[in-house]
Amino acid sequence: MKINFKSILTYVFFFALGAFFVWLSVKDINKKNWEDIKYAIAHGRKWIIIPVILMLLLAHYVRAIRWKLLMEPMGYKPSNFNSFAAVMIGYLVNMGVPRLGEVFKCTLLAKYEKVKFDKLIGTILVERAIDVICLLFIFLLAVFLQGDIFGQFMMEKLKEFFHDKTGSLSYTKLIIAAGAFIFLLLVFYIIIKRFGHIDIVSRIKVVIKNILHGLTSVQHLKKKKIFLFHTILMWSLYLFSTYAGLFALKETEHLGLAGAITVLAVGSVGMIITPNGIGAYQLMIAGLMVLYGLDEKTTGTASGWLLWSAQTFIILVGGLICFALISRYNKKRATLETT
Questions:
Q1: Helices 256-273 and 280-291 sit at what angle, rounded to 10 degrees?
Q2: pLDDT at res. 240
Q3: Spatial CA neighbour of 138 closest among 154, 121, 124
Q4: Which end of the chain lies in a sparser environment, N or C, as judged by fewer CB atoms within 10 Å?
Q5: pLDDT under 70 in the chain at which residues?
Q6: What's the CA angle centered on 312, arms 297 and 12, to 5 degrees?
Q7: d(CA 290, CA 288)
């Protein structure tokens, strides 16, 4: 068996990054703080975790149905279970190796539903593009509803990335980041354009063509309104699961729906930084709670870990169950089709 050192290094890097953020989120918590965290959780509404988990599970199912809608213009109609199982297993794989889950779920569906892998990648890109738009809308909503809180939080984070030691905006960093991105695009374009006769480049062009075909699937959707409905429903479930999660602790129940929107916006960034947001999610939620006048080391940490744990529980349990059932389901399905 050939060892893929690149995958191993990727896994080690992101695992180490996640561990680093976990350490950052707990390094300043003393014994008294830990006692306060335990007290807050012990006297919280632990039953709230049940509706939170149910809403998250439903959101993942809605995502799978929405994914199916993107495949229909290409003539693919996978089963609901295979689509849902692929989504859940993809999330599970992402916990270990970032973005590998997207490839894995396409491979899985291509195997059981006889669809083209390259075209599925295109639908994934469409999904991500739409999710970015939805997330931007959540950000704008957070700014509109809680500009004083959210604006202050974002300015502090931007300073860490694009400001120099004096606190001023570093145009050098901005130019370097933009220049590097444009340079990589130009190099890629030149290689595809000038070396298209080479076998490997030719194959890449075919892959890109299929991906673009998948990307255009949204233009040919016959059920655009249903697709929009599923998108709104999915993000609404994310929002209301966060809103319900804030009621788990008495210290955060007063934040309301506006607070939940802000937590969803900030938490989504944390989920992107590390695999499944481990460490980064808790750290960012704890930092956000400070702006609401809550203690970062106690209420902030407890809230971040509770919300993250519910999301992780669904992925671990749901992903493992789907992984165990998908092969059996398709064997039974194949038997029924042949009889």
A1: 150
A2: 95
A3: 154
A4: N
A5: 1-44, 98, 147-174, 177, 181, 188-189, 191-220, 339
A6: 85
A7: 5
